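Here comes just one.
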Amino acid sequence: MLTKPRAYYSRIFGNLTQVLPPGVVCDSCNNYLSREVESPFLNFRCCEALAIRQAIPSKRGKIPSMTGVIEPIHAPATLTRFLRGNHIEGILDVSPRAIPHLLSLQEGKLIFPAIAQPPSDRVVSRFLAKIAIEVIASRLCCSIWKR
């Protein structure tokens, strides 16, 4: 028996409210789905990039960081974004050796990778099937409880 509600589609798609009530999914199934179906999909770099670009926090409230390059000096940089109230703020972490070069620039660009290898068809199919089953379960629960 599941002791907590289960979100039936990921926060990466903006879900904050759609959950299955306790008892619909057992704990071992919930753990399996999280570990074997959701994680392989959500841990792909393209999904992480989506979360970063859209500033979608994890369940723990953290937005993943993103590594890029400052051009034209080719300095690596890490952007860490966070929520402060209703605002999204960020910190750009660069090497101390790059700071004098950055200060001397008249113009520069901060470049982050835009294209990432998508998950395999199998990973995507399993993830979509999981969401479909959970949506059906949600509709069945709602229709049974309304009777």
